[in-house]
Amino acid sequence: MRHLLLALPFALLPLAAQAHEHSHDHDHDHAHDSLGAHEHGVASLNVALDGKLLELQLESPAMNLVGFEHAAKSDADKAKVAAAKKELEQPLQLFALASGDCKATEVELESPLFGDADHDHDHDHDHHPHEGEHSDIQAHYRFECANANELKQLDLGELFKRFPATEKIQVQLIGPSGQQGVELTPAQPRLSF
């Protein structure tokens, strides 16, 4: 199933490119702006539903989830990182999937803020100083849904509520009715499968 998520960005590239072109009516200060640009307030979510398996892959600037992107040094910052990690480790609380009787079978979180960066991480950033200013958080979730055919929508309302600095989420979905790309916001947090 993981191969399905890896293919998702390429399959939906035309949709993402249209959304990216549309977003140029606001100010950008990144000269290296690209399809996967780091933008505070904006996250991306890839969703793949194949039979009874549902995979979600969330990528967000750390600023949206913890309020900063630097390494946590103070006790207050460490507490914010720990709280965000704890929230992200409970996907059934963040994504309303009750109608599908889904159980999380895999949860993977990755971010330099969680202390899982490799030893060469800082060295790599010496060659790209601008990139060193940004930290992202990636979360990968796999669910087995006993009643996958009952899944009619994905509701991100709770995710927006728990992480209020997240203003919009660019969603790319592959499901039983094909592929689609949509932008979700706190005012419109639901996506139909």
From TrEMBL:
Q: State the InterPro entries in the record.
A: ZrgA-like (IPR021253)
The annotated region (Disordered) lies at 114-134
One matching Pfam family, short form?
ZrgA
Q: Where is the composition biased (Basic and acidic residues)?
A: 116-134
Keyword Oxidoreductase included in the entry's annotation: no
TM ranges are none
Q: Does the keyword Signal apply?
A: yes
Leader sequence segment? 1-19
Q: Which UniProt keywords apply?
A: Signal
Q: Can you say what this protein is called?
A: DUF2796 domain-containing protein
